Amino acid sequence: MNYIPNTDAELKAMLDSIGVDDFERLLEAIPASLRYRGRLNIPEALSEPEAVKHLTELSLKNKQYKSCFAGGGAYDHYIPAAIWRLVSRSEFITAYTPYQAEVAQGTLQATYEFQSMVSHLVNLPITNASMYDGATAMAEAAILASRHTERNQVMVAGTVNPNYLETMKTYLSGTGIQIVNVPIIEGLVDANYIRHHLNDRTAAVVVQSPNFLGLIESIEEIALDIKKSGALLIMGYDPVSLGILKTPGEYGADIAVGEGQGLGIPLSYGGPYLGLFSVRADLVRRMPGRLVAKTLDANGKTGYVLTLQTREQHIRREKATSNICTNEQLYALMATIYLALMGKAGIKRVAELCLAKAHYAADKIGGLPGYKLKFKTPFFKEFVVQTPVPPKRILSRLGKVDILAGIDLGPFKFGLKGCLMIAVTEKVSYEQIDELAYWLSKVK
Question: For residue 2, what pLDDT is reported?
């Protein structure tokens, strides 16, 4: 980003135009005790080769793991090499926002294909052009449900990703929408609690499956009760799991939200990621974010346009469905290429490999002295083990042999102190799982 200096005369002209006689008045909201007075200790500028060398040295300080068994919403799936080559093609090089449809047809067509593929994946008719991530998608779904039902209460399963829940709390603060936390029983949502607490204020019930602990929820048990109450069913999902598990549409979900990071997108130290958002057809005009449609131009040729633009940038503020007015275009494109490359058979195969390897790992680790699987419920690619030594010690010890062994569940509010959550994707080999088990057995 270029630095554009301003002369004293230009600064005065700007202050005069907003009716301020001194720049310090613009800082009155910041307590004086928090303002830095003095000169910043900024080193001399570097030349381009020096800057590249310095940044390269800094990057090498990042810890490199040969095996990653961490999950919790971000997973180390394999990324086909073709993705990196295709995303840089000229058809997809466009402005930040594709408002000028005539110069952004490549981007718009790719987005249309993205929407179509995700809709097929989740078995719901309408998908938007993507959200910021899975967390914001879930929060926006709660707002949509409240507006559609004209109710102000959302029941959220205690087994959803806790980071998503925190995002929802931030989003919903100030909206008048109340979050009701549903208890957990043996790693699963308490279906009876939902059944007995549904009322005429309940706008939606939010359930995630596989849930944060990796377990597959029995959504059939509550779906019918939710429908009868007039509330909406919001289902969080792992897109890779849909290669073998029932889809949100098959469960009768009204809104399906997910994290698309597993669809050919790197871990990137935590983001940015790709929010997936799909709805049944009659909810389309309340959907947040962008929507791309296919149409015909004056000459009868196929063209792609932004449509149903009830977004903050396109409509009067009070009529907007959301203040999200953009989408994760690059990552949506990567996910589109991934889905096109894999196809139905490929997604199914990836899911089968995740399932097989995760269960192999669970059996191997569960048989180690002092280790025990915490839950008996079916799981997909992630599972929880009770450990004979503190998980923090395990993570530290295995980190020294370049293995990221999982996630310590102690800091989370699940009552699972002394438990380690392990994720296994298709990228991990059986030899790496054996090595994980070997080192786990050595930690004292």
Answer: 60
Same domain membership, residue 205 and residue 185: yes
- Measured CA to CA, the distance from residue 354 to residue 291 in angstroms comes to 32
Q: Do the Cβ atoms of 162 and 350 come closer than 8 Å?
A: no
CATH at residue 287:
3.40.640.10
The answer as to whether 44 is a domain residue is: no
The domain boundary residue, chosen from 338, 359, 379: 338
DSSP SS3 for 217: coil
Q: Point out which residues pair with 202 in neighbouring strands.
A: 153
- Is position 316 within any domain? yes
Cis preceding linkage at 210, omega within 30: yes
Q: 66-90 burial, b for 16+ CB within 10 Å, e for fewer? A: ebbbbbbbbbbbebeeebeebbeee
C-alpha distances (whole Å) from 8 to each of 11, 12, 15, 399 are 5, 6, 11, 54
β-pair partners for 279: 126, 255
Return the closest-CA partner of residue 257 out of 279, 273, 242.
279
- Boundary (domain end) residue, out of 322, 338, 354: 338
Q: Which residue segment(s) compose the domain that 418 sits in?
A: 67-77+344-442
d(CA 296, CA 305): 10
* Residue labelled with tokens 């409240």: 146
Q: Give the pLDDT of residue 306.
A: 86
Q: Are residues 273 and 413 in the same domain?
A: no
**Are residue 173 and residue 306 in the same domain, yes or no?**
yes
Residue for token pair 């059996």: 363
pLDDT profile of the chain (444 residues), mean per 10: 77 93 89 86 91 94 92 97 89 62 79 97 97 96 97 98 97 94 97 97 98 96 95 98 98 98 95 96 93 93 85 64 83 96 97 98 97 97 98 97 97 96 98 98 95
Q: Are strands 188-189 and 232-237 parallel, antiparallel or unpaired?
A: unpaired
Per-residue model confidence (pLDDT) at position 308:
84
| pTM as predicted | 0.88
Residues 210 and 111 in one domain: yes
